[in-house]
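pinging the channel bc i need a second pair of eyes. not urgent but kinda urgent?? the chain im working w is below, pasted from the shared doc
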Amino acid sequence: ASPQITLRRLDRDMHPVQAKELRARKNGTVVVSQGETHESLQLDTDPDKARRKLKKLDKDFQEKLAKVSRSQRIAYFTVGHGERSTSPREDEVGLKLVKEVLQQLNYKVKKLGLNDGLSNAVPEDATVVFVVGPTVAMLAAERDALLRYVREGGALVLMLDPEEERPLEMEPLLEPLGLTRDRTLLAHETKFVTMKKAKADRAFLATNRFTSHDSTPTLSKNSSRMFVLFNETGTLEKLEGAPGKDAGGPDVQFTVRSMSGTFGDLNGDLEHDSADEKKKVWQLVAAVQLPPAEGAEGKGGRALVTADADVLADYVVGASRGNQQFLVDALRWLEDEVELSGEVAEIEDVAILHTKDEDKAWFWGTTLGMPLLVLGFGLLGGRMRRRRTTR
């Protein structure tokens, strides 16, 4: 379908020269090639043997395509402040699936902490830096290094956890991005994800309210079937008095919002029991474009900020294709490669999760709808038999 891709089907015995160049040792090999770079997927000429591997073909093909079509990128994850880890222990909420997605997109994942020079500067080979759910305050020098990195054209993903117990002093990093945050937990009385079948599920929100923005192109086009999940999230707001885009300040666009009827739970009981707990649409994700540094060329740095650190946690990404797509769309925008955006192949079978409203539909459909359907078929069958008897 694309003029940028040529599809050829060759027989190894009839084209031995090409087979040698492409390093295809036998038939049943899919080779993705550009110039002198070749990546191969070994299937099989036996349909039964090949069928077992076809389940992961989309994922594997995208991974090989990324390796031949774009140079390797470097994604740094900050460490040393209690952040979510790409190599978590068994009892930790981790980011192993995020690491898999990044590797599929031809990123190399590295750690970035004090021992790696974060207090001085972000490494020059960084394509994007992730700060995911810190629970311990960063040093001022570390925050300054991250801020310089973004102002000089870098890409930052900042994911904040509203439930941290100690002050993190993130304002010096948020304010230059034109943002402030509210740690009040959001909840919804009906539109939530059923996970524990307890009241705590009311804070496990799902939303398909996406702004038409270059950081959410695939999500906004598929909002009828893709949702992004937020478990125990706070909110973001524009910093009052911050200079806007026209005044040389950051261009702040909120790209993901909560469903209507979501309320801020002020007393922690997950009940809407106060006039102060307003029901409305809240801002959950912000895409920030900074102006270029004085005298610098280009568009300036970019930052993606979320009010929930678990948007990319393993248990969420593994359950929601929308969260996987959220990451891929965001990366394309951060790298200014929006034209490469597209649906990501699932990295694993997605668990089936339902909202409370969907559970109600399933309940009434199975307890009332199905019996009525069976009864209807029975009455119709009896009527047809009587007609045949009469004839």
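so The mean pLDDT is 86. and The CA atoms of residues 87 and 96 lie 6 Å apart. — does that match what u expected or am i reading it wrong
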